[in-house]
UniProtKB/TrEMBL annotation:
The keyword Kinase does not apply. One of its GO terms (molecular function) is methyltransferase activity. Residues 4-82 form the Methyltransferase type domain. This is Methyltransferase domain-containing protein. InterPro entries: Methyltransf_11, SAM-dependent_MTases_sf. Pfam families: Methyltransf_11. Keywords: Methyltransferase, Transferase. One of its GO terms (biological process) is methylation. It comes from Alicyclobacillus fastidiosus.
Length: 151
């Protein structure tokens, strides 16, 4: 695989999302329809568990279940990577590289909705620690989807 992995497994609770992923990645990745909180995959078998844009769809107790499953799946010394926007991200002011901030400024109710469905960094860290993860670190990576020439 391009990133150096010998094999990659992808799961999603949505059969439609799995089918779309298969169309993009073909046979390079093995895909399964599964609940990320109980994937049904063998334990102690993976070097990395990557969760992308999942936890904002879950209550905090469900997030803890997800992290417990990730911990079960990982080999000793493995790493979990969680990519999702946090409350802190939502509250950033609008800027040319953060167009969402402008929407939140113009529509405060939209900001309220986003804040309610996002977990803070401290909440996520506490949930990871609660299931046994250690040596936590946070990297802020900015997701750029499109640049606009003007407002």
């Amino acid at each position: 695989m391009a990133a150096g992995a010998r094999s990659v497994v992808g799961i999603d609770a949505s059969a439609a999302m799995i089918e779309a992923a298969r169309e993009v990645y073909g046979a390079d990745i093995r895909f399964f329809v599964a609940d990320a909180r109980a994937a049904g995959l063998p334990g102690n078998a993976y070097d990395v568990v990557f969760s992308r844009a999942v936890i904002h769809h879950m209550r905090l107790d469900e997030v803890t279940e997800l992290f417990r499953e990730a911990y079960r799946l990982l080999r000793p010394g493995g790493a979990v990577v969680i990519q999702d926007r946090t409350v802190e991200d939502v509250l950033l002011p609008g800027a040319p590289d953060h167009i969402r901030g402008y929407f939140f400024e113009m529509y405060p109710r939209l900001c309220d909705v986003e804040v309610c469905r996002r977990h803070g960094v401290s909440e996520v860290s506490a949930a990871l620690e609660a299931v046994g993860f250690e040596r936590l670190s946070t990297e802020r990576l900015w997701e750029i989807r499109r640049e606009y020439g003007d407002f």
